[in-house]
Amino acid sequence: MTQYVIRGGKPLNGEVVISGAKNAAVAILPAALLVEGVCRIENIPDISDVRLLLQIVEQMGVSVRRLSPGTVELDSTHARSIKAPDELVRKIRASYYLVGALLGRFGHAYVALPGGCNFGPRPIDQHIKGFEALGAQTDISNGSVIADAPDGLHGCRIYLDIVSVGATMNIMIAATLASGTTIIENCAKEPHVVDLANFLNAMGAHISGAGTDVIKIRGVKKLSGGAYTIIPDQIEAGTYMAAVAAAGGNVVVKNIIPKHMDCITAKLKEMGLSVAEYDDSIRVQKTRPLKAARVKTMPYPGFPTDMQPQITVCMTQAQGTSMVTESIYDTRFRYTAELCRMGASIDVSGKIAVVDGPRELEGCTVKAFDLRAGAAMVIAGLAAEGTTIVEGASYIERGYERIIEKLRAIGADITREELQDDPPAQQENPA
Ligand code: EPU
């Protein structure tokens, strides 16, 4: 078991450099299976989800060269559509992108799917609807998706019933090599959706409209390689900003796209955090007590669900009654019980949490139930008096590159401990 030990109550000061976006990287790596040639990908975060995906594509015949930290070269010329290795694939939710990629390139995919996770059911019906509209036959049995399109995929018009990041990106991947034009309506507009489209275009695809709710993909015969740099991670940056809001201090968050941060910055400013934007960085400074706020999670450009646990920790430190409405997932408040054990006052009823603040948090042993809940526990530990032990910290390492090193560099007292009997974290709660 990996655990973090945090001696809290110290403000954070200095600079933190943000890594490449996890949710872009975990789509771009499978999408590279479409490319018959060498693609060089830069700003790849060194996180466990990415390491797993590299292992998976390597087993499918992709040649992977790690050139330097943050840069890999993939050559999928000799990739094969074999059944992806179950024990690896089930550990990571983003393995669903392998279906779109294998179907698009080979007309056949057989991929095991991750089980449920602890913030509610996460079906993939919209992905399947898209593949079928493109002409594939699909079958879900024994926990795997089998998709076949022996005559190839054909462009079509698809209207998504709900705004889904995964379905938008998976259908985009599958449609890249389809014959004719595909139009996806009611798309997700997250920065990583745009990043995937930009990656595919850099490899030779014809995709327009990413970042709006209609994406048009003019199928091409082949993708043949190129170079691409992944965007910075919006949620990693937001997590460090929230850490300053909760624990205090003055930190420059570097290597970001400030526009991507607007939905988070606006809320933290409303709560009283000082935020100054520069070209590719943001300075956050806590100069006064935080004020209570209301947050409702929404698809981009709304407030991201992946920042919901972190902002809730900030609310425990804010004066007054805050309210959080989770509108993306059925249940993403399990972590609040851990915060209450640290002294927070949070009432959860269905998709709404009411947070009374400010409350002094006191260190104790808490669990990271998933990636973002784990990040929230770290922030709470930084804001708390005394020692906090965050168990199950391997969840956090699925999405935060060198988090211990980065936090220590801005003054946090945090150490990592490896104990025996690590629970199979990634199998339980893939992101
Ligand atoms: N949904 C369906 N049917 C579908 C697809 C989605 O009902 O076919 C529902 C989901 O159950 C959910 C909502 O639609 O209620 C939105 O889900 P979406 O498809 O947008 O999420 P996802 O693609 O499964 C990605 C990120 C998540 C992030 C969400 C929302 C990856 C690998 N995961 O998941 O990231 O919370 O988008 O922004 O990109 C994380 O990074 O911690 C994480 C969980």
Describe the structure.
With 431 residues, the protein is an alpha/beta fold. It has 2 domains: 2-19 and 232-428, UDP-n-acetylglucosamine1-carboxyvinyl-transferase, Chain (Alpha-beta prism), CATH 3.65.10.10; 22-229, Enolpyruvate transferase domain (UDP-n-acetylglucosamine1-carboxyvinyl-transferase, Chain, Alpha-beta prism). 31% of the residues lie in helices and 27% in strands. The chain is built from 14 helices and 24 strands. It has helices at 22-31, 48-59, 86-89, 96-106, 125-133, 165-175, 191-202, 234-247, 258-270, 308-316, 336-341, 371-383, 403-409, 425-428, and strands at 2-7, 12-17, 38-42, 63-68, 71-75, 108-112, 137-141, 144-148, 157-159, 181-185, 206-208, 214-218, 226-229, 249-254, 274-277, 281-285, 290-291, 294-296, 318-325, 345-349, 352-357, 365-367, 387-391, 413-418. Strands 17, 18, 19, 20 and 21 form a 5-stranded mixed sheet that branches. Strands 22-23-1-24 form a 4-stranded mixed sheet. Strands 2-14-16-15 form a 4-stranded mixed sheet. A hairpin with a 5-residue loop joins strand 11 and strand 12 (214-218). Helix 1 (22-31) runs parallel beside helix 2, helix 4 (96-106) runs parallel beside helix 6 (165-175) and helix 8 (234-247) runs parallel beside helix 10 (308-316). The chain is globular. The mean pLDDT is 95. Uridine-diphosphate-2(N-acetylglucosaminyl) butyric acid binds at residues 23, 26, 93-94, 122-127, 162, 164-167, 188, 305-306, 328-329, 371-372, 399, 431.
